[in-house]
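S1.2 Input.
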Amino acid sequence: MSTQQAPGGRMSRLPITPRAVLGGLLVGMVAANIWPLLLYKLGAPVAAAIELVFLGLYFWWFTGAAPGVWKAQRTDLGRGGKLSGAQWGWGLLAAICFAATVHSAMILVFRFVPFPAAAFHRGYDLSFIPTLPLRWLACVVSALSAGVCEEMGFRGYIQRPIEKRHGAVIAIAISSVLFMLLHLNKDWSIFAMTPIVLGAGVLLGVMARAAGTLVFNMLGHWIMDIGLFAFWWTQIGGTFAQRPIFETGIDLSFYGEFGLFVTVLALLLLSISRLARLRNPMAA
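S1.3 Output.
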């Protein structure tokens, strides 16, 4: 049930922006925190099975695919609806390029400043999970939970109502700043990460607006977070070993890393542009 649309409730008396923020945080962040509780209480295999069922039902309900009360409102806020083959093609490219953009941006950042491996790993110790395959399972499901729930909350139930009242620019700015603030409370949230987290929020907000769906946001967020969990945070997939350029000089690998960032960002922006045209051909 959409907490924003319940008729006669206290939420309906609030102005649209605080109502959207409160409702979106309830829809997104409460759901996202079910997974850690399951993981610690039940262990990876059982918790993963339960979480996958939960996420399927969650997506079914909050995108308006499920019948029942406030279906039209849920469809609007969750950006539900059918997608064409062309939308799937450009949307999948956008999702992959979004994840690659974030990771290549992080690589560039840590070519300018030393990578604080201990700070990034702190709070992400999976030693309580007995085997490496199960740790990978935990990372993949953690990433999926964050991708689905955070996109539904931030780019759906927060951003969409503000878009309709105040326009896309204000809505994307509000959802992106909130996204940044709620992610910069970890040990890895050094100053150099702030523009990356804010930029990721802006790109996701623009993508949701252009595509008219959250599916590609969720896929991109999921792919990005698999890398974040497995490589940058838990470090079960390795640890960043490149040295800053003040130690190595501007070497060949730096040019390659910069070129990768520019390429995937350009492809992402192209994909977003194509998605916007497919959604609204009259604007082309």
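S1.4 Remarks. The chain has one domain: 82-283.
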